[in-house]
Amino acid sequence: MTDIKTKVQGIDPNVQARDIQGLANKATNIYEVLAIIEKRAHQLSNDLKEELHGKLEEFATSAEAIEEVHENKEQIEISKFYERLPNPTLIATQEFLHGELEFKYLDRTADEEIEE
Predict the structure, then answer these.
(1) Which of 44, 64, 75, 77 lies in the 20 to 30 Å Cα band around 83?
(2) How many CB atoms within 10 Å of residue 8?
């Protein structure tokens, strides 16, 4: 997997209007497109969350009193960087539009047999 942070540097973090028909043409219908984008966005969200928590754990100290909270500039900068990243849904949509997502359909014959 490529580094998400370097890949999303060129993506506009603002929401943009999209051509629904153009998206729907890349799969069977718009609902499948949305399901594909949603699953990828969920993966990205989990990856970014794990990465952020991993970096912030380096600064964690075992303090027994709540009053002993120290402000760490590096920790604040890391948090601000992740806050400025585009929303995972925007990243997943961009990946889908550029054909970077691979998706396949499960064998539908088992479902069809049950319905008959």
Answers:
(1) 64
(2) 19
